[in-house]
Amino acid sequence: MLNDLKACAANGTLNEALDGLSARDLETLLAAWDFSARDDQWPPPRAQGGGPWTVWLIMGGRGAGKTRSGAEWVRGMALGLPGFSNAPVGRIALVGETAADVRDVMIEGVSGLLSIHARDERPLWEPSRRRLAWPNGAMAQAFSAEDPQSLRGPQFACAWLDELAKWRKPEETFDMLQFGLRLGDHPRQVVTTTPRPTPILKRLLADPKTAVTRAPTQANARNLAADFLERIVTRYAGTRLGRQELLGEMVEERADALWTRDMLEACRRDCAPPLRRIVVAIDPPASSHARADACGIIAAGIDADGHVHVLEDASLSAARPAKWARAAVALYHARDADDLVAEVNQGGEMVAAVIGEADAQVPVRQVRATRGKYLRAAPVAQLYEQGRVHHVGAFPALEDEMCAFGPNGLENGRSPDRLDALVWAITALALGREAGEPKVRRI
Q1: Residue 329 pLDDT > 90, yes or no?
Q2: How far apart are CA 77 and CA 72, in angstroms?
Q3: Which residues does 403 contact at the CB level (< 8 Å), separation at least 6?
Q4: Is the predicted pLDDT of residue 126 greater than 50, yes or no?
Q5: Where are the domains of the chain?
Q6: Cα–Cα distance between 251 and 399 in angstroms, integer?
Q7: For residue range 306-321, what is the model confidence (pLDDT) as tens digits?
Q8: What is the sign of the dihedral through the CA atoms of 218, 222, 223 and 225?
Q9: Residue 149: which of 175, 115, 113 has the closest Cα?
Q10: In angstroms, rounded to a whole number, what is the distance separating the alpha carbons of residues 123 and 12?
Q11: Residue 4 has what pLDDT?
């Protein structure tokens, strides 16, 4: 049926062909993985380095379809299906966080191995022996990451590793599995996980023999309750937990950073109180080249109790002066700000000039850095620790910079432009000269 539909799609008669299908035929079609799988759920053609992949790392949000992808890959390998394997693979390892997780999720779960097979090809699950046996002779053994030594001895041609980022003994278990992957011409393994910044995941992501696919929870919306998506996305969008559990992003922080993820989550607010003063701060780039630094543009305000509220991150990447000046002025008017604070170390009088061209009526205060970025940022970080700064909403790109900024700057070597603008805004609102900042003057 699927091949016929593909032919109809090729000649433009797919709608007519679908109209002619019975309800049972449509149900069968929707259950066919060849038809329903998204691109990110299908085995990739090559690894990051360009050659055949050894590890296929599937990172996704909760409910994104990771388990189904892993189960379908094991099914395809065991049955020797096109797109998976040229011939049935006889020995397979199934490794989960615990023995219960392997049984309840990977094997007996809603998207597990028993549920995705047609009756005539379904494997027999033998719980006492912790193994699945297919009618064609293929066999899969179940292992718990709590017992790495249980992988000592058996050998396999492929493996499915579920929720690797949650394993208690990830390195030891993964290493023991590698010694057992020694059958066939090209032993391979699929890892399905919601990402966390663990050493083993970072290592796999950096390996040129790894193929990586990603999917957010929203990608599987058709199979999820609408109420779940509305409720969860509204509550967690943009937060560390939401980025990790819904978008499937690896959200990192460094040990010596001035800010932590927990600190930023604690300072988050849904709305700001009445503010007695609002500023827009700019950290202009040194040039407008395509590879130049971003232009940091941050709006923040201070309330009657002296608490600062970060309102918006309107930063731009590699923008020409006229463009970032217009963006800053637009934000100034949108927030009904009192001042526009601009660092002039890089551009000098040019910064004030381009802002004046955008709107000559906007009051601009020039600030010039006389200390290093880390020393200027430290007093601001102290305000966060004291609970005196709040983020109104979530600012993922800005917060990534904050949690990656240490004594030697950002780990990637780039300029922390969003963070610089944030520091200038909070300094202008809550610190000023009494904290050792340079004198500012109105133009």
Answers
A1: yes
A2: 9
A3: 252, 253, 254, 257, 259, 260, 261, 264
A4: yes
A5: 1-36, 40-223, 261-442
A6: 10
A7: 999 999 999 998 678 8
A8: positive
A9: 175
A10: 39
A11: 64
Give the pLDDT band of residue 95 (cuts 50, 70, 90).
very high
Backbone Cα Rg of the chain: 27
Q: CB under 8 Å, gap of 24 or more: what pairs does 320-327 form?
A: 320/288, 321/284, 321/288, 321/347, 321/350, 321/354, 322/354, 322/357, 322/358, 324/282, 324/284, 324/285, 324/295, 324/297, 325/354, 325/355, 325/357, 325/358, 326/358, 327/295, 327/297
Query: Is residue 20 over pLDDT 80?
Result: no
Query: What pLDDT is stored for residue 348 in this prediction?
Result: 55
Which of 88, 81, 122, 91 lies closest to 113 in space, CA to CA? 122
**What are the strands of the beta sheet with 275-283, ordered from one edge?**
268-269, 389-392, 308-313, 296-303, 275-283, 339-343, 364-367, 441-442
The answer to whether the beta carbons of residues 417 and 423 sit under 8 Å apart is no
User: Which uninterrupted H or E stretch holds 15?
Assistant: helix 14-19
- CB neighbour list of residue 34: distance below 8 Å, 6 or more residues apart: 2, 83
The number of angstroms, rounded, from the C-alpha of 80 to the middle of its chain's C-alpha atoms is 33
- The CA-based angle 187-191-192, given to 5 degrees, is 150
- 365: its two tokens: 């205060």
CATH architecture of 261-442: 2-Layer Sandwich (3.30)
How many whole angstroms separate alpha carbon 133 and alpha carbon 91? 10
Classify 303 as helix, strand or coil.
strand
CB 428 within 8 A of CB 367: yes
State the DSSP string of 26-62.
HHHHHH-HHHH--GGGSPPSS-TTSS--SEEEEEE-T
In whole angstroms, what is the distance from residue 374 CA to residue 74 CA? 50
Kindly report the average pLDDT of the chain as a whole number. Answer: 87
Q: Any idea which fold 40-223 has?
A: Rossmann fold (3.40.50)
Sign of dihedral through CA atoms 145, 147, 153, 154?
negative
Give the type of residue at 298: I
Is it the case that residue 434 has pLDDT exceeding 60?
no
Question: For the chain, give me the number of helices (H) and strands (E)?
Answer: 17, 18
Is the predicted pLDDT of residue 5 greater than 70, yes or no? no
Query: Cα separation of 190 and 173, whole Å?
Result: 15
The stretches of 300-395 forming alpha helices (DSSP H) are 321-334, 349-358, 373-385
